[in-house]
Amino acid sequence: MSRRLEKCMTLSDTKLSPPNQLANLLAGDLEEVNKLIQSYMESDYAPRIPEVTTHLVSAGGKRLRPILTLAAARMCGYQGSFHIHLAASVELIHTATLLHDDVVDESTRRRGKPTANLLWDNQSSVLVGDYLFSRAFQLMVKTKNLHILDILANASATIAEGEILQLTASKDIATTEDIYFKVIRGKTAALFAAAMEVGAVVADQDEKITEALREYGDALGITFQIVDDLLDYLGTEAIGKNIGDDFREQKLTLPVIKAISVATQSEQVFWKKCIGKGEQTDSDLKNALTIMSKHNSLELTRQQALSWSKKAKLALTQVPDSNLKKMLLDLADYVIERIN
């Protein structure tokens, strides 16, 4: 999920990027989160667990979701230590979904390295993912806060629903934008929103601020996924995947859905052949880009990403000004910077 965009965030910039600014500001907390994650990825009884998790951790990643939890807690003035547990829990949930996703998608590369299911097997990836989900809930329980448990349990269920909806809608060219947004709100935005919300809840923040932070996370996650889908057609190989990987994998992302919605009869036949049936030739990606250009679907997708980024920033108007708030506003801009 969103692996291309996360790779973009690791590239060197002329100035420190917003994700790195947040990581620097929260470095002490983030170090504690990493230690806790490492301890919860270990097992005295099943050596395959640390083998798989160590491989996944070594592949990199910006820890963006736990950073959001730490940022939300600090913005709300939290003075305790449970934000560390919650940030680690959020990352364990995310890591578990990555392991499961690679099995479902039959992926062979993640963050430039072979996937766990390729190096070991599907069974190991699924079971280690299940183990990490269980460990995430063990961390949640330590807060002794049923509201927090409810938020993260609901997010976990929503992620699974999003993935199953995507599976059932996969390769169906009748898939609508409404279904697409249900999918990405589940598979990506739900955990972004929960990561922000639990940071506020653990700090006992009032409902208005808590809801504002949740809305920010939701809109940021949607922006994140739309940009990721757009980069498959507009990016470069430096982002971590070859251009057109989603097309070759028959994924119905927003640019394609927009093009299909206004397609001529001959274009419908083309999309059914390439996406519905997976019958592709070397020239079909170029033809797909030509069709999307004709219907302006790439630009329309870009405008939708910009709109969601603005929604994320608008949500933060409810939150008092601070250095962290500015960094979160900058983060919303940074997510769409690669498509501007």
What does this structure look like?
The protein has 17 helices and two strands. The two termini are 21 Å apart. It has a two-stranded antiparallel ribbon with strand order 1-2. The longest helix has 28 residues. With 340 residues, it is an all-alpha fold. The protein has one domain: Farnesyl Diphosphate Synthase (Orthogonal Bundle), CATH 1.10.600. Helix content is 72%, strand content 1%.
Going by helix content, strand content and strand pairing, the class is mainly alpha
User: How many strands in all?
Assistant: 2
CATH topology: Farnesyl Diphosphate Synthase
Domain module tally: 1
Which consecutive residue ranges, at least 5 long each, have pLDDT under 50?
A: 6-14
CATH class: Mainly Alpha
SSE topology:
Layout: H1 3-8, H2 18-25, H3 27-40, H4 48-58, H5 64-75, H6 82-104, E1 109-110, E2 113-114, H7 116-119, H8 122-141, H9 146-169, H10 177-202, H11 207-234, H12 245-248, H13 254-261, H14 265-276, H15 284-294, H16 297-315, H17 323-337
Antiparallel strand pairs: 1-2
Helix pairs in contact: 2-17, 3-6, 4-8, 5-6, 5-10, 6-8, 6-9, 6-10, 9-10, 10-11, 11-16, 13-16, 16-17
